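Good day; I would like, with your permission, to put a structural problem before you. What I wish to show you is a protein chain and, alongside it, a tokenised description of its three-dimensional fold. Here, with my thanks, is the record as I have it:
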Amino acid sequence: MESGSPPNAAAGRRDGPLWTPQAAESTNLRAFCESLERRGCGSFGDYTELHAFSVVHPEAFWSAAWDFCEVIAESRGECVIEPAADIYSSRFFPDARLNFAANLLRRHDDSPAVIFSGEAGERRQLSWSQLQADVRRISGALDAVAGIRPGDRVAAWLPNIPETCELMLATAALGGVFSSCSPDFGTNGVIDRFGQIRPRVLVAVDGYRYGGKDFDCLERLGEIASRLEGLEHLVVVPFLDSRPDLGVVPGAVLWEDFLASGTSGGGASAPLFAPLPFDHPLYVLYSSGTTGVPKSIVHRAGGVLLKHLVEQRLNCDVRPGDRVFYFTTAGWMMWNWLMSALASEATLVLYDGAPDPVRLFDLTDAEGITLFGTAAGFIEATAKGGLSPRRTHRLERLRTITSTGSPLSPEGFEYVYSEVKSDVHLASISGGTDLCGCLVNGDPTAPVYAGEIQRPALGLAIDVFDDEGRSCPPGTQGELVCRNAFPSMPLGFWNDADGNVGDDPPGVLGVTTGPRYRRAYFERFPGVWHQGDFARWTGNGGMVIAGRSDATLNPGGVRIGTAEIYRCLESIPEVLEAIVIGQPFGGDTRIVLFVRLRGALTDELTQRIRARIRGGASPRHVPARVVAVDDIPRTRSGKLTELAVRDVVCGRPVRNTEAIANPEALAQFRDRPELAS
């Protein structure tokens, strides 16, 4: 077990570290530094020196990372980075030939590869040898029955179950392009996503279980299938019922029948792992924005593989035999990130159902989870609920907790160390679907400070810009950017106007950087990746993310990140949840704070909220209106939907309500009399 120093006394936590590693020399990160030293790249005393090297000498860094992480490839080629006039046109390992699935299925023994636990307590376990056999059988059916070839799309409307993992691996093995949505997405949400990419195969579930209730998917599936152009094969995985009635879904076949057809037809004619270019499309992921049709973001196999290997092995210290868990659905990029842990020879622990904290910490003990990944909202809610897992659970093997999805407050950090586990590496990480990875993340060799993300990602020239594109000094907020190319930059958007991703093969194999893609990331600061997050460096070399910059408040022309206000509310026990927006009013913008409370909103509580924000942030942060609501809308990955609430308050339509887990909550924000004056 990794060990660390206990947290400081509560009175001094904000000034000193909450955790200091005691076993830094035994980490993968330290071993990687030593490997660089043996290659003659210099010596590295800490992460900061390693990061500087990775940015100044990217070819040497990514070449060494490839070797250290043991990428399996038919060939690598001599060229590491093929430069271009624009960073989005740069290519990594242009001569390499590899297969993503081969890298994830590198083990063949009988130790566990995948462990699944359901909300009702059901458990399944697959060994590495079973996983490989299942993938071979599924790829055989995709090949022999569906005729899947490189570039063909296979879509999954599935929960976070072993079949979803296996289908992804089988698709990648053949060179197909995989895309997934969770079954809690409604009909229009699925069509808005899969309708753009025209999958040849759709694999769906008969239903799912959440919060103790069963939800049927078959009726919706019939409509979805009828509206997907180009769909040739519809397959249903039984989950709620071992033999579901497919009468309401014309043309559908059961999972086992589909696989048996592949076997009876002679199996796969193609090799199990097709060698493909580094830039071959692997995934289509979808932005989780709340307006317009989601962006269909195409990610390359080699880039995702190498980026995830670096993040997991070096930043999260994942090792062979570890057990890696992330609370996620198959519709969030953290599911894709979780799958890649197989490439580090770690066991995946999958869970599908409601995020009950006791259930998930029970799972941590039962399965010996070493990395527990979750959203910041889960940690904040667990703290609000008064749980103390360190008193109720052993958590003996737990070395790392990762938090993402939204900024984790300093109080959230402190809660982890005081009430979950004192000797754990809490890595707050931030990136996005856009890069299927992290821009800033953890460092297992450095102290953890409350409210701070520890370090910039290796190989990425992370910076914070002011409005003029100048670097901001520590403590000054600005726009989070990356000034150089990195392997997991998207190939582009599906069906971008002047690109060729989205055409029929062979066009699908090409690199595209169409106009929508360029506008999304490179228009704000030409030639620089603009993430759309409001951030600032700290004096410790870390970073604080203040929320999305497009949701940034701007009262009186002063830019304020919403996370600054949320942090002030953490210590008010009556406030269960909050969401803040900027409302145009009187020729300016005023701050409106909506709160979900334990009880009623009184004048005393309103004044206490305002006083806490004034004292914890500044007078400029104080909301002009504090309004009580019964529910607050969130995306399906747990993020606050600030832009959607702002649109409702301003009388604008919210077009992509399918991205919201509880869209009915939006009605409360419409025509509020408190906001009329």
